[in-house]
Amino acid sequence: MPRGKTHCLEVWGDLACFTRPEMKVERYSYPVITPSAARGIFDAIYWKKSHGFYWQMERVEVLAPPRYLALRRNEVKDKAPPERTIKAWMDGREHPEPLWADGSTDDLGTDQKGRTQRQTMALKNVHYRLHAHIRARIDEANIQALDAQFVRRASQGKCFYQPFFGCREFPAFFKLVDAESLSPPPIELDLDLGYMLYDVFDLGQANDANARPAISVFHAQIRGGALQVPPYEDDAVKKACREGSHA
Length: 247
Fold this sequence. Notes:
The chain contains four helices and ten strands, in the order ββαββααβαβββββ. It has helices at 35-45, 83-91, 105-108, 143-155; strands spanning 7-16, 27-28, 53-62, 68-76, 115-136, 173-177, 191-201, 213-223, 226-228, 237-239. It is α+β, with helices and mostly antiparallel strands and 247 residues long. It has two domains: 7-70 and 119-192, Alpha-Beta Plaits, CATH 3.30.70; 78-113, no CATH class. Helix content is 15%, strand content 35%. The relative contact order is 0.26.
C-alpha cells in the first residue's frame, strides 16, 4: 500500500489513562501511550473515512518519566444515547432524558443509585513525541495532497475535535515538530511491557461501514526512552482470527 512521509507531533497533558484491557472495572493505565491512543491524536487533527487511509504509528518517544496518580471518581452507570437521539434533543424534536447520577426511587425507577464509585490509576504530566505516516488503502489515493493537508492543519493547531489521552476528560495538546531535528532527547528508560494493546480495529478494513472491533496486541519494549511500533501487517502484531481463517 502507498505510504506518506513521516510526521512528528509533540504532545503533552496533565492527565492520561491508557487502560489495560484485562482490567474490567477499575482502570489501570499502561505506563506509556498505546499505538491506538496515539493514532487517535493524529485522527483528531486529520482523518476522513472517505479518503481511504489510516495513520500508521512508527515510534513513541517518552519525554517525561511515567508517574501514576490514583483517582477515585463517581461515574454514572447508564450510557449516553445514540447520536441521533442527542441531535433530536438539541433540535427540540424530543424531550431530553437526563442521566441520573443520584436521585429518588421515583426518579430512577429502581432502589439502586445511578452512579458508582470507581478507582483509576492514571498518569500525570505526560509528554511524548509521536512519529507516524499515512498508509493508503486505495492505490489512487493522493498521498502528497494528504500529507500537505495534515501539515497545514497541524501547524495551525487545527483539529476536528480536541485530542485526548485515553479518556475524553484528559485533553492532549500538540504541536507539529521537525522529525529531522528533535530536542530534547528521550529520557533514559528501559521497560519490557509484555503484550500491549495495539489497536481495537482491523486497520486494513476500518473503511468498511460494517467493520467490527478487532483487538490486536504486540510485545512492547521501551529502549532508550523509545517504543518502536511495528507495522500493523507485521507478524509481530498478534491479531484476532477473521471468519473463515486460522490463527
